[in-house]
Design a protein that fits this description.
By secondary structure, the chain is an alpha/beta fold. It has 5 helices and 7 strands, in the order ββαββαβαβαβα. It has helices spanning 38-45, 88-103, 126-138, 154-171, 187-195; strands spanning 8-14, 27-31, 64-69, 73-77, 111-119, 142-147, 177-178. A 7-stranded mixed beta sheet has the order 1-3-4-2-5-6-7, with helices on both faces. The longest helix has 18 residues, at 154-171. The N and C termini lie close together (6 Å). The structure holds guanosine-5'-triphosphate and magnesium ion.
């Protein structure tokens, strides 16, 4: 599939299942804890500065944002999890919407890949592990992207690559990608992994 990534726009910021777009085009979803760098990664992948909102106050709104790329593909920004200060009501909204995306989504068969973000400085948290177990159970292909690698020094980087690669291999056949939105390291590699799953 040839994609003009410069033709990207927000289709809808959906707070309800009924708002999910019906366009019959493939979807790539992005999952991760709040503040892991999801919006920054989407902007970097699309070569944009501020298409996806980068927030200083994490975990504010519970929406699933569908970005239309060239009318041929959706990037789906799932709501972040693990935000400690979230109210119970907001936690319920997160579960309802996220579970709905995977189990009640009429276009679920168009979901080609979930990109599961993990902070390279922290490694997989308890919440990340829960999400990954859930992705495994759902049967959708997923790969792990370790974010913010520019923040690691040489020793930390070597250790993160060893640890996260070992962790990833226990859970998915797809190899992890080490990524930075600041240096754009990993961008081409992630596009290759995405294109491998598209027609
Ligand atoms: P929520 O939407 O609030 O759940 O967060 P998010 O996962 O979308 O994270 P976001 O992209 O908003 O980034 C959170 C913070 O991390 C921001 O201050 C970013 O500037 C910073 N950040 C994101 N990616 C990188 C990266 O690759 N390197 C560094 N150094 N900082 C990053
Ligand atoms: Mg975000």
């Amino acid at each position: 599939m040839k994609l003009n990534t410069e033709r990207a726009s927000l289709n809808i910021s959906a707070g309800f299942l009924s708002q999910f777009p019906r366009n019959p085009i493939p979807q790539i979803a992005f999952s991760g804890r709040s503040n892991v760098g999801k919006s920054s990664l989407i902007n970097t992948m699309l070569g944009r500065n501020s298409l996806a909102r980068v927030s200083a106050t994490p975990g504010k709104t519970i929406t699933i944002n569908f970005y239309d790329i060239d009318g041929k593909l959706f990037f789906v920004d799932l709501p972040g999890y693990g935000y400690a200060k979230r109210s119970n009501e907001s936690k319920r909204a997160w579960s309802g919407l996220t579970d709905g995306y995977f189990t009640k989504n009429p276009n679920r068969d168009l979901l080609r890949l979930v990109i599961q973000l993990v902070d390279s400085r922290i490694g997989p948290t308890a919440d990340d592990r829960m999400m990954i177990d859930w992705l495994r159970a759902s049967g959708v292909p997923f790969l792990i992207v370790a974010t913010k690698v520019d923040k690691l020094n040489k020793t930390e980087r070597e250790k993160a690559i060893l640890d996260i690669t070992a962790f990833s291999r226990e859970h998915t056949p797809l190899e992890p990608i080490f990524f930075s939105s600041h240096t754009r390291e990993g961008k081409q590699e992630l596009w290759s992994a995405i294109h491998a799953l598209l027609p």
